[in-house]
Amino acid sequence: MSQSFTNETKYFDLHTRGIGYLCRAREVSVSRAEPYLAVTVAALHGAAHDVEYTYIDCRVTGAEAYMLISHCKEEINSGSKVLVGFTIGDIWISPFTYQKGDKKGQPGASLKGRLLYISMLRIKRRNCVQGSSQGTRTKRLVQHHPGQFRTR
Question: Containing domain of residue 100, as a range?
């Protein structure tokens, strides 16, 4: 009789789901690592008639989210309203010190996380992606909106 043990690491996931606008899509270069795609999510919360925003700087880690953000980068950075349903993983607070402006020298903090999944994406109030089976949505998105999205 043989007994096998696995050294499988178990994780506790902290997932934040919501709806918000995308801004500041960018490639981030790091000195000792591969560059990565980042985006800021302006997450909506509060009463519908008095909406508040919480900004979360995200590293885009989900494969489909990466492709969607890459295709929409120009629209995001041009100021077009790009609304998304999102799942962000493992948010944390990153402290910093303001380097210029009225708050120079004062401490500040920003929320950071990993953008894992985009369940819905709208550009200028037009549905481009709506939750369906993962993986096939991006292909359909590019096929049905060829002028809206550019491929690399």
Answer: 15-144
